[in-house]
Specification:
- By secondary structure, this protein is mainly α.
- It has 4 helices and 2 strands; from the N terminus they run H-E-H-H-H-E.
- Strands 1-2 form a two-stranded parallel sheet.
């Protein structure tokens, strides 16, 4: 007896993977700018912060970057890594 349509394994394999997080200590200006709610000015502030402070030890340090408050930090938390 033949089945019609894709197998359940083919459907599961076709599901997209979640995007890899952007690493705050190595992301380019363009990669940071592509994050939701982060424009070119804030991206530059993130780069300046990591240059001045030797990088990010945790995602929570984003709160110290001017223009990133608690709400923006919450939006970015699962999209970035130190």
């Amino acid at each position: 007896m033949a089945r019609s349509g894709p197998s359940r394994w083919a459907v599961a394999a076709a599901a997209p993977l979640p995007p890899a997080p952007s690493h705050l200590n190595s992301a380019t200006l363009e990669q940071l700018d592509a994050l939701p709610g982060v424009g070119p000015v804030t991206a530059q502030k993130i780069v300046a912060y990591r240059q001045e402070h030797g990088g990010f030890g945790s995602v929570d340090e984003l709160d110290a970057v001017p223009g990133i408050g608690p709400a923006r930090l919450a939006d970015l938390r699962n999209l970035v890594a130190p």
